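[step 3/7] fold_predict: job queued, chain A
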Amino acid sequence: MHRRILGVLVAAFLGTATAAAGTGTAFAAPTAPAQTQAAPAKAADFTSIVALSNCSGSVVRTPNSADSDPAMVLTNGHCLETGMPSAGQVITNRASSRTFTLLNSGGGDAGTLRATTLLYGTMTDTDAALYKLSSTYAQIQQQYNTRALEMVLQRPTSGGTLHVVSGYWKRIYTCQLNGFAYRLRESEWTWKDSLRYTSQCNVIGGTSGSPAIDGASGKVIGVNNTINESGGRCTLNNPCEVDEQGTVTVRRQIGYAQQTYILANCIAPGTVLDFNRQGCTAPRG
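[step 4/7] structure written:
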């Protein structure tokens, strides 16, 4: 987990709990992605990417968003300005005045965006946060010539090219989607159905909250949140995979993202959080 950058994270806030052990531990080498007839990958740039004070993020919309709707910024739950949510905690519709530095396509600073509301934030089952902005999609398009990235509404398939685009470091990682982790444990938190990268996405502190962009469609399928840094087993900065039988697998220096379709389906017209919408499976607390 990449909140521990440049002294941002105070150790006293973290705790030192270790996740419960499974029935066994396997130390796995990175595996090759399944071979698929994927569409050619598109080049990635920094359009709609933002930098936070401690993390990365992106301006996003759903296929149902109107240009007149307030825009949203996607990042990690562990990147919240108030600190990391505890296991089981879900934060919704809380006032926020957080600011974000919007980048242009080449990675230069384009301007500043401001939130009005933290629509959603959690580290339970997923590690995601959505902020509602004071600007609409149309206003951002007009002022900065920037169109928001679109979030998919369906679960992706394995094997395609991914771009992980960090606004904090102004760096783009490109790798393959190498399957899914049934459960991903890191310290006190457990995440479901996480996206697994191949080793080329060797993400570092500050890349947390970067969008994981499908290379073929250019759409957001996940939000980057962690990597196993040193081979540790289910500890902070060393997540482990747990399968349906409880077997623990450690993949040293392999990174992960959390799927975003479960949350994208919860956004109603007007940028309203609605847990009753069809397809909305984000944790409710």
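[step 5/7] annotate
Residues 102 and 108 are 8 Å apart (CA to CA).
The longest strand covers residues 171-186.
exit 0
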